[in-house]
Specification:
The termini are far apart. The strands form eleven sheets. Strands 4, 5, 7, 8 and 9 form a five-stranded antiparallel beta sheet that branches. This protein has a five-stranded antiparallel beta sheet with strand order 23-33-25-26-30, with no helix packed on it. It is mainly beta.
């Protein structure tokens, strides 16, 4: 006998995707002490006949379809018999397997006969669209509910892959090459702290990497320890250190892992801001901003003053001048006297030292200038030494010593030198033990090769005087 059953209702709520988990059997393993979810879901309906709610024992047929009307059934038909229907309500558990739910829409077709075992099945129309609740069976296994917080879902059995069937890490995201789409994005933050994400090792005492925001103005990448940036890393091994930021001092090192200053660079530095040029120096303004400037001396100097007289004098730094380039040459050593008639020619006096440097000065400051006089040549007895040349100085900033006096019969002299950043030692005077074709041994040149500060020649009969030094100031 055929019967018409109207008003079959799908009462499965979204909460059933979570509610039945604790009572369902089957599925894959989960956390210890927690019953894992299977692919069974609970279906509740209400059955009316002629507007009257059914009270009987009935048989049901359930089939899964991919459309509201035809065309394709998904999987087999489930038969559930001897179901108690009370006041029209009934509850069954259905299991179409996880493969039946692939993310596409599904409809449930139901056929019923009451009482159980009597007559033919009547197919109820329309098919019932399945809400998202049963789709939980596709994603629950092998996930499980946390034993400490029932709102958390956990997974402990292996690697998780998104976009890959062979994850190589606990979490492996393979977004592939995409166009116009961000492969990975995290949206949200801790409202109180601005924390977005934190990466740490399993040991809580080891450093972590934290990403957070500070209001609407700053994005911060932070760590409790120092930062080190390497290149050429192979696998999990550190590579070559390129930059280090120390945790305590905040010092930044480039090419060094132990910076001792706020910026410590091991290697050359290149600064190109459009003001660079050959021979320029990096100069700071009052705010500490550096730019390349033509130095106050050398190429670009427009003024020069020479001091060549071996007397004391002063130099006053002109107004507005903060740098001077200074050259100094000491006096040349006097030549030595040999043995007249004995065939021995005295040694030439040694040349003076040469020094040059660029120095910061204060406008209006006064500096004492001393020019070293050339040493007197020996005119005494046989085989006597010439007098040394005098020291040349510009205040306490820079100086150059004079050359040593030439020796007599075979002795030697000491050339002059300088305290300047650029120091060039003088040349020794020539020495012969017997009379050459020319009866004089020439004195040594100044450190820069000039005749200023040159040593006097040695002779059999008397030594010649060395040349005076000088001071040259550029600004």
């Amino acid at each position: 006998m055929r019967r018409n059953y109207l008003g079959l209702m799908l009462l499965v709520m979204a909460s059933l995707a979570i509610g039945p988990i604790a009572v369902l059997a089957g599925g894959q393993g989960g956390a210890a002490g927690v019953t894992p979810a299977g692919t069974v879901f609970t279906y509740q309906g209400q059955l009316d006949q002629g507007g009257v709610r059914v009270n009987s024992t009935c048989d049901f047929e359930f089939s899964l379809w991919d459309a509201a009307v035809g065309p394709t059934q998904i999987g087999g038909t489930l038969f559930v018999i001897n179901v108690t229907v009370t006041d029209g309500r009934f509850t069954v558990q259905l299991d179409f397997g996880a493969a039946a739910f692939n993310g596409n829409a599904r409809w449930l077709e139901i056929a019923v006969r009451c009482p159980s075992g009597a007559g033919l099945f009547t197919t109820l129309v329309p098919r019932q669209p399945l809400t998202p609740a049963p789709y939980a069976v596709r994603s629950l296994a092998p996930w499980a509910v946390s034993p400490t917080n029932k709102s958390d879902i956990i997974y402990e059995t292996g690697n998780v892959g998104i976009g890959t069937a062979s994850p190589q890490a606990r979490f492996h995201l393979d977004a592939g090459s995409v166009f116009g789409q961000t492969p990975f994005q995290v949206v949200g933050e801790d409202f109180n702290t601005g924390l977005i994400a934190r990466f740490r090792r399993s040991n809580p005492l080891e450093p972590s990497i934290t990403m957070l925001t500070l209001g609407n103005t700053e994005a911060i990448l932070a760590s409790e320890k120092s930062w080190r940036f390497d290149t050429d890393a192979a696998g999990n091994s550190p590579g070559t250190p390129r930059m280090t930021i120390l945790h305590g001092s905040g010092n930044v090192g480039i090419g060094t892992t132990a910076p001792t200053e706020k910026l410590d660079v091991a290697g050359s530095v290149r600064i190109t801001d459009g003001t660079q040029g050959e021979g320029k120096v990096l100069t700071s303004d009052a705010s500490g901003v550096g730019t390349w400037q033509t130095p106050a001396g050398g190429g670009g100097f427009s003024n020069m003053q020479v001091f060549s007289s071996p007397v004391m004098s002063d130099f006053t730094v002109p107004a507005g001048v903060t740098k001077l380039m200074i050259e100094v040459r000491g006096g040349g050593g006097g030549g030595g006297k040999g043995n007249a008639g004995g065939g021995a020619v005295g040694q030439g006096g040694s040349g003076s030292g040469y020094g040059m440097g660029i120095f910061s000065v204060t406008p209006g400051s006064i500096h004492a200038v001393t020019v070293g006089a050339g040493g007197l040549g020996s005119n005494g007895g046989t085989c006597t030494v010439g007098a040394p040349g005098g020291t040349t100085s510009f205040g306490i900033i820079i100086s150059a010593t004079g050359g040593g006096g030439g020796g007599g019969c075979g002795s030697s002299s000491t050339p002059g030198s300088s305290t300047a950043p650029l120091n060039m030692t003088g040349e020794k005077g020539r020495q012969y033990f017997s009379s050459p074709a020319t009866p004089e041994n020439p004195g040594g040149a100044c450190g820069d090769g000039s005749t200023i500060g040159r040593g006097g020649n040695g002779n059999e009969f008397f030594g010649r005087d060395g040349n005076d030094g000088n001071v040259v100031v550029f600004w």
